[in-house]
Amino acid sequence: MDNVLKALELLWKGMGSVLIAMVLICIATMILVKLTQPKNK
Amino acid sequence: MDFLLDGIRALGYQEIIMYIVGIVLIYLAITKKLEPALLLPMGFGAILVNIPASGAITQTIPGFGEVTGIIDWLFETGLEASEAMPLLLFIGIGAMMDFGPILANPKLMIFGGVAQIGIFLTLLLASLLGYNIQDAASIGIIGAADGPTSILVSQVLKSNYIGPIAVAAYSYMALVPIIQPIAIKLCTTKKERQIRMEYNPKNISKRTRIIFPIVVTFIAGLIAPSSISLVGFLMFGNLIKECGVLDNLTDTASNILTNLVTLLLGITIASTMKADAFVQWDTLLIMGLGLVAFVFDTIGGVLFGKLINLFSKKKINPMIGAAGISAFPMSCRVVQKLGLEADPENHLLMHAAGANVAGQIASVVAGGVILTLVPMMM
Q1: pLDDT value at position B304?
Q2: Is the minimum CB–CB distance between A16 and chain B shorter than 8 Å?
Q3: Contact at 8 Å (CB) between B71 and B41?
Q4: Where are the domains of chain B?
Q5: Surface of B (184-203) touching A: CB under 8 A
Q6: Which residues of chain B have pLDDT under 70?
Q7: Which of A36, B132, B137, B160 sits CB 3.0–4.6 Å from B207 for a disulfide?
């Protein structure tokens, strides 16, 4: 039972952390692309 | 001369099963071309380590004491002591990767994150089946669809099942073109598979490509410090490629280094395929759980695509979500093929490739997150 509770905690925290990391990378990438792409004239 | 028969006398049913496993892996590698670079060395290694009193593994010889075998030495040095082999492989993978599709459409990054759900659901399932948290997490990581990450995580967590996990991870990666279409068709209608997506090609500047791996390393490292070796080496390889001034190193990393490490990694993993540890019901159970992990990844990604369509005016093809796993380029090709099957004019490759590349980043992040969280719970 203890292991199952730990697994549930891992599901919640782990999946949450992965999603937060990917959202942050997504936002950072969007800003990066905006800042570094040459302007179309 | 009686000693000549010692080897034959020492053969048991477990060793014979391992020879069959080894030959099947070699057969799949050569005939079916399933991840041959890994499955062939693993198959041959499985035979090498299971020859009675094999000199390839460490043996205690009366009068001499312990004599170290080369495969056990490779395992202890290259995996157990430093995890060097999978990490070095990441440099090569990074040097081969093109982040262009995800830089052209960064929003696809989310699909990579969502498709990691299979890791955590399988972890939960494995713990329900009675595995301790380290083994459950190591089994779940098969769902990363990323062989080196699976090996590294299961090794760091000292799992008892590194051999079966490595075999499952590499076998299912190779079987993505068979597993994913079934799972995708189970949870989509033909109408959904026909949804077309507009593609606006973008030229990505060199500066963007150079800064991207550095930014990802910072973010992943600050969120999950344990992921820094995984993500960092992957991004280091990519930076070497994108900087444009290290062509020789890029060539070495993507060819010589990758080939050399792959060659040794396969045969090194065989150290964990000794009959007494491998021939048990757990191995079959782990193979089954690995398959479940890939199916959960696929269904999770597709359902997320459907969820977005509930709120978005611009519909996306939910199959793109299934491409958010790390198995590149197999997964994006599956989505492209299913899209064309449903509508011969429906080209989804570039969108699917973006999600697929995101899956490669997300899988190493997920591996790092597990390495951060599991020790906290022990």
Answers
A1: 94
A2: no
A3: no
A4: 2-377
A5: 202
A6: none
A7: A36
